[in-house]
Amino acid sequence: MLVHGLFDTARVFDRLRRHLDGRREPLLIPDLPLRWGSTPIESSAGLLARQIEMAFGDRQPIDILGFSMGGVIARTWIQLLGGHRRTRRFLSLGSPQQGTLTALPWPGRWLGGIADLKPASPLLRKLNADLSPLEEVACSSYYCALDLMVVPGPRAVLPIGERRPLAVWTHRQLLRHPAALTPLVEELLRG
After folding, report:
1. What pLDDT, in 10s, does the model give residues 72-111?
2. CATH code: domain of residue 99
3. Which of 48, 74, 105, 106 could form a Cys-Cys staple with 66, CB 3.0–4.6 A?
4. Is 190 a member of any domain?
5. Mind giving me the DSSP string for the chain?
6. Which domain holds residue 173?
7. What is the crossing angle of helices 69-80 and 41-56, to 10°?
8. For residue 115, is it within any domain?
9. pLDDT category, 191, cuts 50, 70, 90?
10. Sign of the dihedral defined by the CA atoms of residues 25, 94, 123, 139, in that order
11. Cβ neighbours of 31 (radius 10 Å)
12. Which residues pair with 90 in a beta bridge?
């Protein structure tokens, strides 16, 4: 399963899907209505839960990759909505798991999803308060050190699991550049 970020649709994964070349099926890539960041992360995680259940039922084990805000949505589903019971691996790609300074100026009243990405937001504090659901999942964080969406870049890591910087310059290159796509495909194809 691949979960897109804030200003994206499922198409953001087109290159990754082509690189996978059908070797990772079934592959669910839902379009989540994030409404320019106004949908709170927990609401988006609930939508994701319904998409997963419709596609895979309620028991099939899954691997999940979340890009940008999609990684925080996936993490919320894993930790708060019981996703840890069926998730084998979670790959967080350029996701502000520890918050991002770029979210600071945006008001929570109108942009609840973006406000959830502020450092030490109530949602991130809740997720970091109990990591036990993540401990049941093989977690990996991939990030770009000079990311301008997740500032500073190294905040794009989960509090547990492997952390791997990718040799790209921008947030978008995390899903476009061979230096990022090659290790991601290798990881996704690994047993």
Report:
1. 999 999 999 999 999 999 999 999 999 999 999 988 889 9
2. 3.40.50.1820
3. 74
4. no
5. -EE--TT--GGGGHHHHHHHTTSS-S--------GGGTS-HHHHHHHHHHHHHHHHTTT--EEEEEETHHHHHHHHHHHHSSGGGTEEEEEEES--TT--GGGTTS-TTT-HHHHTTSTT-HHHHHHHH--HHHHTSEEEEEE-TT-SSSSSGGGSS-SSSEEEE-S-SSTGGGGTSHHHHHHHHHHHH--
6. 2-185
7. 70
8. yes
9. low
10. positive
11. 11
12. 64, 139
CA distances 109 to 96, 154, 185, 189, Å, are 20, 28, 38, 41
Residue pLDDT, tens place only, 24-67: 888 899 999 998 889 999 999 999 999 999 999 888 999 999 99
Q: Looking at residues 5-27, what average pLDDT do you find? A: 91
Total domains present in the chain: 1
% pLDDT > 70, the chain: 99
Q: Would you say residue 90 lies in a domain? A: yes
6 domain-assigned: yes
Q: Rounded to a whole number, what is the largest CA-CA distance in the chain? A: 43
Q: Which two tokens stand for residue 110?
A: 């109108």
Q: Is this model's pTM higher than 0.90 or not?
A: yes
